[in-house]
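Dear colleague,

Thank you for sharing your sequence with our group. We've completed the structure prediction you requested, and as agreed, I am returning the results in plain text so they can be pasted directly into your records. Please verify that the sequence below matches your submission; if there's any discrepancy, let me know and we will rerun it promptly.
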Amino acid sequence: MTIVLGAIADDFTGATDLANNLVRGGMRCVQTIGIADAPLSPQEIEALENVDAIVVALKSRSCPAGEAVADSMAALDWLQARGARQIFFKYCSTFDSTDAGNIGPVSDALLDRLGGSRTVMVPAFPVNGRTVYQGHLFVGDRLLNDSGMQDHPLNPMRDADLVWVLSRQTPHRVGLAARPVLDRGAESVHRHLDALAEQGVRHVICDTLDEHDLEVLAEAVVDFPLVTGGSGLGQALPGQYRRRGWLADVAQPGRLEPAVGGALVLSGSCSRATLGQVAHFLRRHPGFALDPLALAETDDHLGKALAFARCHLADGGPVLVYASADPERVRAAQAALGVERAGRLVEEALGQLARILVDEGVGRLVVAGGESSGAVVSALGVRQLRIGEQIDPGVPWTQAPLPGRASPLSLALKSGNFGGEDFFTRAFEVLPMEASS
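Please find the predicted structure tokens below.
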């Protein structure tokens, strides 16, 4: 089997975000949850046939840099064994990382293994308000460090100058492809990248203000062994692959089976967008607030959440269980429990709820937050996702085969910052259901 694109994503929702844009570009896509240790099942082997792209989802955004590099190298080997023409390293559109990594170290390791001399950094996703100008990352009309999104609990981003941010993560030179270069077209960009490479520049931050800039960049780098960035670049690459004759036209690349089962939302994200989505949902549907401090004290709190969800699922749902909270409450829990333990308690609780309630009949599940999504898919034993149609930019419905289930689980993994205010309610409205007998 050979594929056109093999992608390595540093978190679960980021992987789904990229896969969503590839499907929208006409590519048949499967997302894998890491690299399977056990042999693939016949269903999993079949799912990997007749696809154009595979996105490997890792939990490598916040782990130590050495671990992130090792996991990414294993994913690269697995994708190269499947004949990938190009490798895409996907990270957050807000460039979430620290001065120690992990974007720089992983990019360097991938370039070394692939024998590449340079690559581009294209985090921008204009449709979601993430743009880059003069190397500075904007969210809407605000610099990242003044946007309200700078205080990520694990990877705070308080410097919007991406050239400086990346320069602190790699021993290699970092350059800039500024907007005037992009205005002159793909050939201009390619020449500029060549000139920078001759000067010893290995990583190039690329200004990107709109969809046209993404198309120019995709045309300029389609033959690079490695590209890196957010999912915005992923929406522009399929057109370039098609121009080279690498892709066939496929009707409905995101077609999924009709959904079956109860509707549940699990939210661990504390982003501003998710807090708004939680509030919107609670004005219309029932919800239970998970408290990390209560989880630390007794198992009874998780039991109450489970009983609450069961009761309202029996009434037809949908129902929400959430640990999403404002920054003050998050800091209080982290101060009492420690950052790592507070996060682990929430992730473990959400994973347990997902496993129990899916076993009991939930068939439509929305999860908000990258770390929460990773915990849930791990608890469920999900190893593959077939990518379906988009709910909101960056967030599609997916389906996962699970042992013992006649129908696949319909699953939406939402980055904390993505989706409109009504996302949690509208997600279930746009998902086709199996007709009642």
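Summary note from our side: The mean pLDDT is 91.

Kind regards,
the structure core
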